[in-house]
């Protein structure tokens, strides 16, 4: 195999032409209108961060990406500060930079963007404040409106149109409905702002139900049941990635539309609350939903692969396929552009965590602490490497098409309409 760099795919070249070196908020003056931070590069933050694929696998994957609508069910399209000590100040400014160059190189056609709102700390000192969440969503829309590469989409037709124009579609999401408080009508406002997928609960419980970090999960509250109905009526996809198990099962029983897990893994492979037990994965699949397998550091580890890497992530993919079938599994890497482990260390206390899941007291099998997940370091490479891994392991194009977008597209069509 030649060591010379491969030429860029046609789709990437076209998207770089649309990007035109735009940087977030360049329509304003740094230092006068906002504080500029030294940010990580959108590409190459970590040298040799992923595998090198054979020419045959690379050729097949590129042809696939040219032919199919490739979807990430959950990523964070955010550039982080180069200095982790600046994370909190960066977030409090409320101007999360979008990594347009990395998006152009990703090969992904449609991202479900978790955005910055999990740590909305602009006016509030805690997460999930309503004003902060709305500010984050609106600020994201303002920045995207000033460039040509990324298009916010609210329907599959808009996603298809964006791809035909070599643009990248982005679906706005929130990982928790906590910002609505007890006001169900705020769900309508989120829909009006373009949110098309919403987590019921993040790790800490809210007025709708229980989070995975809490005990005493009793399922959805009366308010949670009303919120679920409203989401079904509005056409917002219901996500239970961070809910407690009983709350997830209750949502699956009561929803009139598919319920999804956008970013998690199999608890049978790695025994943490962050992973999902078989009964929850099956319950979501039974609604027509899917589980998106994630790759955020120190999540989808396995006993066979105790050092978190692409192979351990894909072991979770294969375990979920074995459990519920290939029609109910997707890719939800949950990555960002920056030092993800440092990000976790900084913000874990906000969500009742101590970032000590690797300690002996956690009860987990022995595993290695990593600084990044090899093969899934950021959204520019994660989905592409997952596709290439599948081809390298003998998967058919039909099966890869389901995992790399088809299953998500089916759910979106069911909830949003075509």
From TrEMBL:
It comes from the Bacteria. SUPFAM superfamilies: Metallo-dependent hydrolases (SSF51556). InterPro entries: Metal_Hydrolase, Pept_M19. This is Dipeptidase.
């Amino acid at each position: 195999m030649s060591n010379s760099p491969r030429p860029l795919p046609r789709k990437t070249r076209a998207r770089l032409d649309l990007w035109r070196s735009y940087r977030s908020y360049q329509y304003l003056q740094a230092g006068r209108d906002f504080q500029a931070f030294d940010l990580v590069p959108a590409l190459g933050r970590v040298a040799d961060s992923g595998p090198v694929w054979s020419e045959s696998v690379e050729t097949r994957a590129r042809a696939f990406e040219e032919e199919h609508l490739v979807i990430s069910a959950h990523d964070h399209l955010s550039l982080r500060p180069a200095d982790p000590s600046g994370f909190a100040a960066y977030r409090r400014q409320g101007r999360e930079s979008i990594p347009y160059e990395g998006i152009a190189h990703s090969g992904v056609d449609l991202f479900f963007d978790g955005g910055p709102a999990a740590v909305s700390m602009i006016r509030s000192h805690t997460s999930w404040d309503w004003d902060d969440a709305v500010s984050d969503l609106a600020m994201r829309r303002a920045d995207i409106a000033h460039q040509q590469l990324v298009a916010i989409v609210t329907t599959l037709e808009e996603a298809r149109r964006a791809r035909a124009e070599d643009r990248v579609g982005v679906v706005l999401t929130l990982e928790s409905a906590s910002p609505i408080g007890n006001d169900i009508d705020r769900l309508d406002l989120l829909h009006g702002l373009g949110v098309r997928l919403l987590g019921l609960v993040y790790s800490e419980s809210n007025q709708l139900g229980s989070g995975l970090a809490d005990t005493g999960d009793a399922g959805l509250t009366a308010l949670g049941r009303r919120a679920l109905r409203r989401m079904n009526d509005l056409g917002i996809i219901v996500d239970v990635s961070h809910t407690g198990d009983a709350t997830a099962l209750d949502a699956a029983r009561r929803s009139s539309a598919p319920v999804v897990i956008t970013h998690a893994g199999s608890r049978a492979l790695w025994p943490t609350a962050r992973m999902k037990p078989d009964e929850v994965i099956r319950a979501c699949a039974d609604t027509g939903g899917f589980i998106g397998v994630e790759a955020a550091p120190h999540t989808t580890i396995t006993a066979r692969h105790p050092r978190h890497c692409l192979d351990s992530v894909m072991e979770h993919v294969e375990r979920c396929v074995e459990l519920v079938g290939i029609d109910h599994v997707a890719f939800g890497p949950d990555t960002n552009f920056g030092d993800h482990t440092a990000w976790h260390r900084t913000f874990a206390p906000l969500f009742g965590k101590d970032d000590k899941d690797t300690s002996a007291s956690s009860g987990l099998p022995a595993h290695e602490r990593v600084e990044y997940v090899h093969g899934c370091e950021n959204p520019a490479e994660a989905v592409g490497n997952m596709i290439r891994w599948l081809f390298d392991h003998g998967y058919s194009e039909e099966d890869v098409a389901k995992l790399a977008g088809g299953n998500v597209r089916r759910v979106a069509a069911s909830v949003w309409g075509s």
